[in-house]
Specification:
Layout (H helix, E strand, L loop, with lengths): L2 H22 L5 H8 L4 E5 L3 H6 L6 E2 L9 H6 L2 E6 L3 H12 L5 E6 H10 L2
Amino acid sequence: MKIKDLVVLAMISLALWSCKTAQIAPEISRAETKSMVTNPETTLVDVRIPEEYSEKTVDGAINIPLAEITQNLDFFRKQKQVIVFCNTGRQSREAVEVLKMKGITKVYTGISVRNMNAIKAEKK
């Protein structure tokens, strides 16, 4: 196989994977996120590493790093609904994808710490 063929295959694979991700972890609207954040039955989970969590997070959020998501499936199954977030949204989308593949459906991405803090500030 030529390098050009490998590049084309890699691009097709990435496109298919991106489509799959979009189906597993759809975005929810800002209004929906705001409604969930104000709901006392919503659990906020910061999926960043503990050092980043200790520097700055969202009031009321707990820390379960992305690398530990699958070790905490029982915790997630017990929650009514969960919003996960990180720095840029990449890790939170990955966390949502993993959790949904494990059968946990009431989990959503709040994208980032900055986004979540802005939404929480709006509710005041």
